[in-house]
Each structure stands twice: as C-alpha cells, then as structure tokens.
Amino acid sequence: MSVIAPCDPAEAEAATRWCATQERGPVYLRLGKAGEPDFTSKLPQPWAFGKIRQIRTGADVCILSYGPIMKRAMAIADHLEANGKRVAVHSVATLKPLDREGLTEVLRGYPHVVVIEECAPNGSLSMRVRDLAWTVDASCASTPSPCKTRSSIATVRMTISWTRTDSRSQTSAPALPPTDRHDRDLPE
C-alpha cells in the first residue's frame, strides 16, 4: 500500500489526480482539513509520487515534514531564520514508498536534519530517517547533532509536535498558543 500525506492544497490536488490514474494498488491519501496554507503551488518542480520536494532553500538546517503539520514546520523555520540560521524545508509527501535516494542527499548535504511530524514514535518518518542516516553515514550522523544519538530525532519530533503528555515516555511538550495550535482537538 502506498501512503501519501500532502502538505497543502496544491500537493493534495496533484496527489489526488495521481491516485485516480495510478495502477500500483491501494493508496492511503491522508488529507488535512484545517484549511492548510499554500506552500508549493509556485514551486518550479511539480509534485511527483515517491519523491521529496524542496520547498525552501537553506544551508545550516534542513527540516523534513509532511501533511498538515507543515504549517508548524514552516513557522519553526521562520523562527530559526530570525535567529540567523539558513533553513531548508523539504516536503516528504510520499511516506511509502520512501524516497531513500532523495533523503540520502538531504542527510549528506546538511549538518543538521530535523523531522517534524505528528505521529507515534514507532514506524514514523523520523525513525526511518534516523536509520537511513546511520546506514548511509550521513554528515549529520558523524557530528554531535540530533542525528548522532539514536533516539534524538524521535525526541525532537515529540517535543515539537506533541502538545499533550505521552503516557509511554512521560514526556510532556509545551503547548503552542491556541491561535497557532494545529491539534486543537487534543485534550490538554
């Protein structure tokens, strides 16, 4: 089964058109319903199934994200840039099959790679990116950065994305202000 989670209306339209014409088999298309902002409609490269896509250029940090949480990823990129970091952002809209080649280029090209997603730790994008970083001996895995510690990417994801207590690890993340929260329906 293929899994696609577009980050905005333009990706959602392209993914839906692909789903309607593909012959690979079943597809899980995860759509946001919060009126996601447009991040990709003016990009030079079109959305392509199975490929990551650069939304924003930068050199110091790369953020990988997908789906409706991309809004938060872009806000974090803005905050980091306001503090002097050059931040690239990539959309990983196709989660299965994963673009290992494209992710390898990202992992080897940036000293720091952060995954921002909204899901459980097991089987997540961050877990798969962390494992790929170790497999390909990525530059972010050879320096003391979030990729170096085997659990750091997952920790970053939970700290940034979860706004409730995780009963498995007893980790609690600070909630965003109500006007900026993506997950308004989660209990406090």
Helix content: 25-40%
Our measurement of the CA-to-CA distance between the termini, rounded to an integer number of angstroms, reads 34 Å
Let me know the number of strands: 7
* Sheet with most strands: 4 strands, mixed
In the sheet with the most strands, the strands line up as: 3-5-4-7
**Can you tell me the number of structural domains?**
1
Give the ordered list of helices and strands.
EHEEEHEEHEHH
Number of helices: 5
Radius of gyration: 16 Å
Judging from the principal axes of the Cα atoms, what is the shape? globular
pLDDT below 50 for ≥5 consecutive residues: which ranges?
143-188
CATH topology: Rossmann fold
**Any idea what the CATH architecture is?**
3-Layer(aba) Sandwich
| Broad CATH class | Alpha Beta
User: Percent of residues in beta strands?
Assistant: 5-15%
Structural class: alpha/beta
Strands, helices and their partners?
Layout: E1 2-4, H1 9-21, E2 27-29, E3 53-56, E4 61-65, H2 70-82, E5 87-91, E6 94-96, H3 100-109, E7 112-116, H4 125-135, H5 152-161
Parallel strand pairs: 1-2, 4-5, 4-7
Antiparallel strand pairs: 1-6, 3-5
Task: Give the structure's gist in a few sentences.
The protein has 188 residues and is an alpha/beta fold. The protein has helices at 9-21, 70-82, 100-109, 125-135, 152-161, and strands at residues 2-4, 27-29, 53-56, 61-65, 87-91, 94-96, 112-116. Helices cover 30% and strands 15% of the residues.
